[in-house]
Amino acid sequence: MNLSSLPGIADRQAGPKQGLVIQIASSLTIMGAVMIAPMLPKLAAEFAPSSPRAAELVPLVATGPALAIALFAPAAGFLADRLGRKTMLIVGSLLYAFFGFLPAMLDDLGSLLAARLAFGCAEAIIMTSCTTLIADYWTGEDRSRYVNRQVVTIGIVGSIFFVLGGAAGETNWRYPFYLYLLPLLLLPFIVRTLWEPARRAEQDVREYTFSRTSILGAVTASYLLVFIGMVASFIVPVMAPGLLVALGTTSSSLIGLCTGLGLLATLAGSLAWPAARRRLGTPGVNVLLLSLLALGLWLLTSAGSYAAVMLAVAVHGFGAGFLVPNAMLPLLQTLSARYRARGVGGFTSALYLGQFASPLIILAFAQGFGGTPEGIPAAINLWAGVVLAAALVWAGVWLLRREKGRRALRS
After folding, report:
1. How far is it, in rounded angstroms, from Cα 245 to Cα 261?
2. What is the mean pLDDT of residues 105-116?
3. DSSP 86-113
4. CA distance 372 to 365
5. How far apart are CA 21 and CA 44, in angstroms?
6. Mean pLDDT (whole number) for 154-171
7. Which residues have C-beta within 8 Å of that of residue 62, sequence separation ≥ 6?
8. SS3 state at 173
């Protein structure tokens, strides 16, 4: 059913222009971390003389926004439902530019960290608003297509700005923060191209389509899947460089090549997701992606050479590429327009909470295996077991659905 044809839904039909603007706006969130990560050593050198805790606090410049997104995304969803998605996207873009650029003007590490946390709140607004607009503007396979394009665009832009951030900060750590002013160029297109969706008619239809139990089940499954998957997804990029050094690979170029392979593999997984979903269905893809994540973790802990680490990164990254679109789409298909942004806000929170908690969980598990660094491989293997257990649960769901489908065909 095309909900845009129902009474009360705006006559305007979203197309490639709206999709492109939303995709580019969504990609602002990946810029938040990738541009700053190469600058952390220079930030540490800058603030170490004046701040005795610089070694502990500087990493929060990169990871702090993820925690702020996790904490603020539900509130961002509530505001987007109440005040409008386009309105909040404009507000979020302005705050993003201001707080993103602000650290370039600051000389105090505490103030810089506060600006980065506020920046994370702006990212939460942007991500929640963009994802909700995709569900507002499109239905059915069009919605699936634009969800995937959003994920692919984020991956491509992240790869580009990882390089740009490193180049911009080659001479001064402040210069990458100037790049956060770029969203100001996007604002006129947001204002002119996007519109506030009409939601009442779609809300009425969807509230009679799904029971509260099915909605709660879809929300819980999406949140758990993305949290478990994101914890697993961030283990490899965090742990692989240290493992390579332990194996004798100290070349920054070779370590960077490993990181680049992980990004490419994740992008390849995102590109392969539509075909996999048509072939296996959503539960089947969940089984596949969780199995690949678990396998990648086990390959990483058993790797004894550079080539073996690269294989682990490739397998793991390919599975990670399926994660976000396959966890998000069932949520968008189930939620009514009235609560959609709040549901997306919760999803965004679970996603970034998994990202932030990933190293903390592994370090906590490692304490039961002799501490760090000795217990890290066993801790990673333990989480791989958690991921595999989740894969088995979804395998059961997948088989049940296939059996129900066969029975329906026979009857």
Report:
1. 17
2. 91
3. HHHHHHHHHHHHHHHHGGGG---HHHHH
4. 10
5. 36
6. 75
7. 33, 36, 37, 40
8. coil
pLDDT at 34 over 80: no
Report how far Cα 21 is from the mean position of its chain's Cα atoms.
18
Q: Report d(CA 34, CA 154) in Å as an integer.
A: 11
Encoded tokens for 80:
């987007």
**Token representation of residue 345:** 């806000």
**CA atoms of 250 and 248, how far apart (whole Å):** 6
pTM here is 0.85
Place of tokens 């939303």: 22
CB atoms within 10 A of CB 271: 14
Q: How far apart are CA 108 and CA 231, in angstroms?
A: 32
Burial (CB < 10 A; 0-12, 13-18, 19+), residue 14, is buried
Rounded CA separation 283/293 (Å)? 15
**What's the residue count for the chain?**
411
Residue found under tokens 């680490």: 309
